[in-house]
């Protein structure tokens, strides 16, 4: 009787452990965290393709850039698809725990304005919104430098901040805001640097509505990220096969016409 009681107790503890964690992995299901546009839209195109391989794709949407990495580290996701390498490496915790596998597309970062049609027409002391996220703030400042509006310290790198500006002929004033909130504040300032996905979600066409836009040569490709140790997951290999494909490249070119650029 005592032996039977111990056996039942062990089973109950094991079952309880599974329910407590809530993270039992289904080898036939692939959970990927995304921002809705264009990441979620692109993944939805390959659901049926993965189903033919016996894999059920579950797309989990997030509207920010923090939760998809935290959920992946916690084991609530098998992968995420929303970020580029400089962003992944902007936090030591993420860099240590996560691995960037391959790029899928570039969302060109752009400078937008509701007040002027050309960047050269921005007035003296114009207020420009940049991201609170260091990786994308630096990316925005580099965009301005590449177009001759400011000059940064030679060693500023991808994490440049307004403090790294050494030449600012028009005395631009910079204001930092959460990237998801920037499109809503465009009317309140002279210009704003907006990430491609948030521009698209706000109904902006980066190729037509921006007054400055990164080119297709941008190194900031968004791609698939997994937890370190899971790089060889066969579900991830199956995803790459259908996602990095001519079908997706053709869709990107037709749907966004330069506002999103394939990175493969």
How far do the termini sit from each other? 64 Å
The fraction of residues in strands falls at: 15-25%
Q: In percent, how helical is the residue content? A: 25-40%
Could you state the order of secondary-structure elements as H and E? Answer: HEHHEHEHHEEEHEEEEHHEEHHE
What is the CATH-assigned architecture of the largest domain? 3-Layer(aba) Sandwich
**Which structural class best describes the helix and strand composition?**
alpha/beta
Mean pLDDT over the full residue set: 91
Given as residue ranges, the uncertain stretches (5+ residues, pLDDT < 50) are 2-22
CATH class of the largest domain: Alpha Beta
The CATH superfamily label of the largest domain reads Periplasmic binding protein-like II
How many structural domains? 2
- Main pleated-sheet profile: 6 strands, mixed
Report Rg: 22 Å
In total, how many beta strands? 13
Give me the side-by-side strand order of the main sheet: 2-1-3-12-4-13
Question: What descriptive keywords fit this protein?
Answer:
264 residues, alpha/beta, D-Maltodextrin-Binding Protein, domain 2, 2 domains, six-stranded mixed β-sheet, five-stranded mixed β-sheet, globular, disordered N terminus
Structure write-up:
- It is a single chain.
- With 264 residues, this protein is of the alpha/beta class.
- The strands form 3 sheets. Strands 2-1-3-12-4-13 form a 6-stranded mixed sheet, sandwiched between helices. A 5-stranded mixed sheet has the order 9-6-10-5-11. Strands 7-8 form a two-stranded antiparallel sheet.
- The protein has helices at 2-21, 36-44, 47-51, 67-74, 85-88, 92-97, 134-146, 196-201, 206-209, 234-243, 246-256, and strands spanning 29-34, 56-61, 79-83, 98-106, 110-112, 127-131, 151-152, 165-167, 173-177, 191-194, 212-213, 221-227, 261-262.
- It folds into 2 domains: 24-108 and 219-262, D-Maltodextrin-Binding Protein, domain 2 (3-Layer(aba) Sandwich), CATH 3.40.190; 110-213, D-Maltodextrin-Binding Protein, domain 2 (3-Layer(aba) Sandwich), CATH 3.40.190.
- Mean pLDDT is 91; it is low at 2-22.
- The longest helix is centred in the N-terminal third of the chain and has 20 residues, at 2-21.
- The protein has 11 helices and 13 strands.
